[in-house]
Amino acid sequence: MSHSLYIVTYDRGTHWDTGLVKAYHWAFLIELSPSTGLKHQLRGMPGAYYYPGPEAADPRNEEPGRVIMINTNNLIKTKDRAGEKGEEEEGGEEEEEEEEEEVEEELVNGLSRDESATQIVVAKLEIGSVEQSRLGEFEKACREGYVEKEEVQGGEGRWNCQEWCLGVLEGLKGGDMGKDIWYGREELKGWLKEKDHSTMALST
Question: Where is the composition biased (Acidic residues) (predicted)?
Fold first, then answer.
């Protein structure tokens, strides 16, 4: 069974001093069913970007024009995945690994928690598919994707979540999942580029 893979983009408002539209936030969405999905996205800010792991998502809320809350309540607990893995392993090593992963999850949940902010979905573009048996492989690619740690190199007009998504896709296209990723960097950047808010209003 294969699941549709999307890039979803979100409006972040405009710069207070210039009125120009800020770079959109990009995230991956894997649609498991009409009402359940997995979201993979970069969180944080320049100098403190991080990938927290897969997050539960409702594809019905990820449609253009919808307003969504930005928070970390929908993170899929690392310890749950570790527990499933542990059933197949033996001995004390399993307990140590599970404890380490639980600590990692606590640290992730402690970063950039903001339950009041919202973003508007701008676009939802289907870019390929992911086989059920390769959901873990997609997550692994996200975890191994390059993340810029230098604050001065990140942010508007520099390295950001868009570059992270494109880098993950380029890595996948170079491997066994390449045939399931339909588009390249320049196509995606062109189709998903930021729009002036007046243009967005006319198109909705």
Answer: 86-107
